[in-house]
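Handout for the seminar on molecular recognition.
Each group receives one record of this type.
Step one: identify the two inputs.
Step two: read the structure output and locate the region that could contact 4-O-methyl-alpha-D-glucopyranuronic acid.
Step three: write two sentences on what you found, then compare them with the reference statements printed after the record.
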Amino acid sequence: MTSPRLPVWLGALALGLFSFNARADDGYRLWLRYDRIADEKLRAAYSAATAKLVLATPTGVDSSTVAAAHDELTAALRGLIGSEPTITLTKSATDVPPGAEAFAIQGRNGTVTITGGSDIAVLYGAFALVRRLQLNQPIDDLVVHDAPKISRRMLNHWDNLNGTIERGYAGRSLWQWDDLPGKIDPRYRDYARALASLGLNGTVPINVNSNIQFLTPGYLKKIAALADVFRPYGVRVFLTARYSSPVELGKLPNADPLDPAVIKWWHDKAEEIYALIPDFGGFLIKANSEGQPGPQTYHRTHADGANLLADAVAPHGGIVIWRAFVYDADVKDDRAKQAYTEFTPLDGKFRDNVVVQVKNGPIDFMPREPFHPLFGAMPKTPLALEVQITQEYNGGSSELCFLAPMWKEVLDADTFRPQPGSTVARVIDGGIDHHTLTVIAGVANTGTDRNWCGNQLAPANWYALGRLAWNPALTSAQIAEEWTRQTFGNDSRVVQTIVPMLLASREAVLNYSMPLGLHHIMATNHHQGPGPWVDSLSRADWNPTYYHRADAQGVGFDRTATGSNALGQYAPEVASRWADLATCPDEFLLWFHHLPWDYKMRSGKTLWAEIALHYQAGIDSVRGWEKSWSTLRGAIDDERFIATQKLLSRQEHEARIWRDACTQYFATFAKLPLPSEYEKPEHPLDFYRKLRAPFTAANTPSVSAPKP
Ligand code: GCV
């Protein structure tokens, strides 16, 4: 990825005379930066160890994927160590690693051999070798064997036909629909390279709130052109589809999944798509959720709906990813219970090529949720995990919030079903119920911003999703360190400053926005500021007051047996731990319990004091990062230094808004004094109640899905 920010002559002049580039970096190259390694000895050692590179594939035949591996290794070695490797291609002997995506790297006596179960596995091996060099790790006598734990590792984009991105904070959609298929933006290839470098192998370029236009012949050709660019990098394209397409596009009287005309319509549509995109992955469907049409419109189940599409793509090897994110206007006792209630009776009723995609928690990507009770509750159905990389509820692209710790929390959560040790990671990798169709997906945070993700630290989340999709056992600390070294270099001062910031950030954001299990207390439309007072939206479960239930007696949602009993959807071991105040962790306290303001916490303080102190602690953390970041001046390029410095100052401001608004609002019920450590609010409550978010595409869900 070159970074064409300056005219060529000016860039050359600047590079030669003033080393200008060292002071400016726009972040475009993401973690694939191949700047020269400063340590001469290390360069020499790497140069000797990689004098000959052998790519061993099952066929030994050159392909566009092998060419991509060749190009990547050449660019990386040229950049990192200044050497021109000799790269040869061979047919692998008997030692092919098991699994089409598995690879082995063996290095000895100046030759490194990358053997793959397929061409794409060799590309993954090439990126793994390059990563080692970027991390300055030893590569003498190298023996590496690696394979992904989950078979479909996906990005889900929420990009709209008009170029906006629902909940996107990094500019406009990467996909230039007006120009496609004739004009191919070079960025598409860079996008595919970034995915392949992490082992991500699927993309859904368009919003789950879909538009029928995407299934028209004209748009399918555009999507096919994208698929052609992505193919050498092992990235398969999937599509979303509006369930009502047979009516809206096909002019059929209904979209009933059991109607033969509807069945034929989808079969024909699948044929049409596969004729253009032979390796089309299949469909990702949001149905009967937030106003989207679906099979329930025709009194059919989600299984009927999914099976219709599954049958259409099955002859071509396609799959259907059916989302379990459902809730409707008729909120019964608790929105958190709806997906489980609707989906568990359908276990065993889905076709083999259907996977049900479940968000990490039962509400909606809140900064912290307990794991979704569906994990562990549908043993006969492959379940996918969906997480949100884009920071809808974590500060958009203006706040640092490294999300690996959040995803690890859910991946490592023990569902206790069918027995202890059945973590969400093992449910989704198929280990518990012996499924081979396994999926993990992240809602992308990419856009046309030069740095891809809207701020210089946000690509860490894209990176983390990719790495965890490959191997959910990696730790947050390992991922944070890898990303930092690849993105900002191996200077220990830099690494020791940035890694702790990343690792602390998610907890800090929680502290200043929704601590102790508070959730869904954000402003309407725009989800990055406080709105705990909102109580007038047309549906009960869109209102923050529905979730925090603050009153003179206390605060929190009682989800125990005395309340909604959402806890009853978990295994008894989990439910009893969270139901009992003696064992319920503080972080889930107000998610599961309604407690008096003067409830005595483990710390000995009252609940009210703890709430206030958490808000304050969040701000203190951001202030700490501002200080530590300032020590990096001169240690990293000025462009990324200054951009991040500004971002942190904005984050501090936004954190204060959260704190001052929420604590003053809750104080109207608690009627208790604020602790002495707590700073005086900048403005009275009314000021915050009147704040209005700017109108942006990201803050405004698509027209087909009116919601808060
Ligand atoms: C794509 C949240 C977001 C919506 C999003 C929805 C979903 O509710 O606010 O913008 O719609 O999740 O996951 O379908």
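Reference statements: Residues 23 and 637 are 4 Å apart (CA to CA). Confidence is low (pLDDT under 50) at residues 2-21, 702-706.
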